[in-house]
């Protein structure tokens, strides 16, 4: 989850988020280098007393500031395209979960299990247990097995929503009448918090998402219990 005064991203809990963090650091270094070069050039121009009488016909400079930005764009674009293709790839998921956005809660349906569906509402502040987070905890968490490819099918029943879990690198719009899909793998056990990231009405801030990643044996026990109840 996010923390007060946090400047960076949340710790990665999926391979896609690890790739996004690396790409962010890679691109940020390019931005720092460009900013330093521009600042140095401006400071030199402001302090020097020298003039160039041939400044109107500097072909070498024109070539440099045309070719260099093109090279920089390629250096940024290639890893970006690679991550986009990785995010779109869905190969042999072990579990498919359908998430529907409502005003203002989420409902989940485990399509590989008959009659396994439930609604997930935010836990009111006066019902929180010690250690639970206000405005982030829910009454029914989405439990998944760790280290297993999970396919999410995401839609909405009424207005636009967005199913977002930052630490897993997930942000997919929930659009009425349209079924979007995404995939992820949780690489470690834990609780991963998210929220609706599309303004959907008065209670937009009160429909959190909690993904609980557990070992496969624990997931099987939980799914058996859910189907029995």
TrEMBL record:
<keyword id="KW-1278">Translocase</keyword>
<comment type="similarity">
    <text>Belongs to the cytochrome c oxidase subunit 2 family.</text>
</comment>
<keyword id="KW-0186">Copper</keyword>
<dbReference type="InterPro" id="IPR036257">
    <property type="entry name" value="Cyt_c_oxidase_su2_TM_sf"/>
</dbReference>
<keyword id="KW-0679">Respiratory chain</keyword>
<dbReference type="InterPro" id="IPR001505">
    <property type="entry name" value="Copper_CuA"/>
</dbReference>
<keyword id="KW-0813">Transport</keyword>
<dbReference type="InterPro" id="IPR014222">
    <property type="entry name" value="Cyt_c_oxidase_su2"/>
</dbReference>
<keyword id="KW-0999">Mitochondrion inner membrane</keyword>
<keyword id="KW-0460">Magnesium</keyword>
<comment type="function">
    <text>Component of the cytochrome c oxidase, the last enzyme in the mitochondrial electron transport chain which drives oxidative phosphorylation. The respiratory chain contains 3 multisubunit complexes succinate dehydrogenase (complex II, CII), ubiquinol-cytochrome c oxidoreductase (cytochrome b-c1 complex, complex III, CIII) and cytochrome c oxidase (complex IV, CIV), that cooperate to transfer electrons derived from NADH and succinate to molecular oxygen, creating an electrochemical gradient over the inner membrane that drives transmembrane transport and the ATP synthase.</text>
</comment>
<dbReference type="Pfam" id="PF00116">
    <property type="entry name" value="COX2"/>
</dbReference>
<keyword id="KW-0249">Electron transport</keyword>
<dbReference type="GO" id="GO:0005743">
    <property type="term" value="C:mitochondrial inner membrane"/>
</dbReference>
<feature type="transmembrane region" description="Helical">
    <location>
        <begin position="63"/>
        <end position="85"/>
    </location>
</feature>
<dbReference type="InterPro" id="IPR008972">
    <property type="entry name" value="Cupredoxin"/>
</dbReference>
<dbReference type="InterPro" id="IPR002429">
    <property type="entry name" value="CcO_II-like_C"/>
</dbReference>
<keyword id="KW-1133">Transmembrane helix</keyword>
<feature type="domain" description="Cytochrome oxidase subunit II transmembrane region profile">
    <location>
        <begin position="1"/>
        <end position="91"/>
    </location>
</feature>
<dbReference type="GO" id="GO:0016491">
    <property type="term" value="F:oxidoreductase activity"/>
</dbReference>
<dbReference type="InterPro" id="IPR034210">
    <property type="entry name" value="CcO_II_C"/>
</dbReference>
<feature type="transmembrane region" description="Helical">
    <location>
        <begin position="21"/>
        <end position="43"/>
    </location>
</feature>
<keyword id="KW-0812">Transmembrane</keyword>
<dbReference type="InterPro" id="IPR045187">
    <property type="entry name" value="CcO_II"/>
</dbReference>
<dbReference type="InterPro" id="IPR011759">
    <property type="entry name" value="Cyt_c_oxidase_su2_TM_dom"/>
</dbReference>
<dbReference type="GO" id="GO:0004129">
    <property type="term" value="F:cytochrome-c oxidase activity"/>
</dbReference>
<dbReference type="GO" id="GO:0042773">
    <property type="term" value="P:ATP synthesis coupled electron transport"/>
</dbReference>
<keyword id="KW-0496">Mitochondrion</keyword>
<feature type="domain" description="Cytochrome oxidase subunit II copper A binding">
    <location>
        <begin position="92"/>
        <end position="225"/>
    </location>
</feature>
<keyword id="KW-0472">Membrane</keyword>
<protein>
    <recommendedName>
        <fullName>Cytochrome c oxidase subunit 2</fullName>
    </recommendedName>
</protein>
<dbReference type="Pfam" id="PF02790">
    <property type="entry name" value="COX2_TM"/>
</dbReference>
<dbReference type="GO" id="GO:0005507">
    <property type="term" value="F:copper ion binding"/>
</dbReference>
<keyword id="KW-0479">Metal-binding</keyword>
């Amino acid at each position: 989850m996010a923390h007060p005064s946090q400047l960076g991203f949340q710790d990665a809990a999926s391979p896609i988020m690890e790739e996004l963090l690396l790409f962010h650091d890679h691109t940020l270094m390019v931005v720092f280098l460009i900013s330093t070069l521009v600042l140095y050039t401006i400071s030199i121009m402001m302090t020097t007393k020298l003039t160039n009488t041939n400044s109107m016909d500097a072909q070498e400079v024109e070539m440099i500031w045309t070719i260099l930005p093109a090279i920089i764009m390629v250096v940024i674009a290639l890893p970006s395209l690679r991550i986009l293709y990785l995010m779109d790839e869905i190969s042999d998921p072990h579990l498919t979960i359908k998430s529907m956005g409502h005003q203002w809660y989420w409902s989940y349906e485990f399509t590989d299990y008959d009659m396994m569906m439930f609604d997930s509402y935010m836990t009111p502040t006066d019902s929180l247990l010690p250690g639970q987070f206000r405005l982030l905890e829910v009454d029914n968490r989405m439990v998944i097995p760790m280290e297993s490819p999970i396919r999410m099918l995401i839609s909405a029943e009424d207005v636009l929503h967005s199913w977002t879990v930052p630490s897993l690198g997930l942000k997919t719009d929930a659009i009425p009448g349209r079924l979007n899909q995404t995939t992820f793998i949780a690489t470690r056990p834990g609780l991963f918090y998210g929220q609706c990231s599309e303004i959907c009405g008065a209670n937009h801030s009160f429909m959190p998402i909690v993904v609980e990643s557990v070992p496969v044996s624990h997931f099987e026990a939980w799914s058996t219990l859910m189907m029995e109840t």
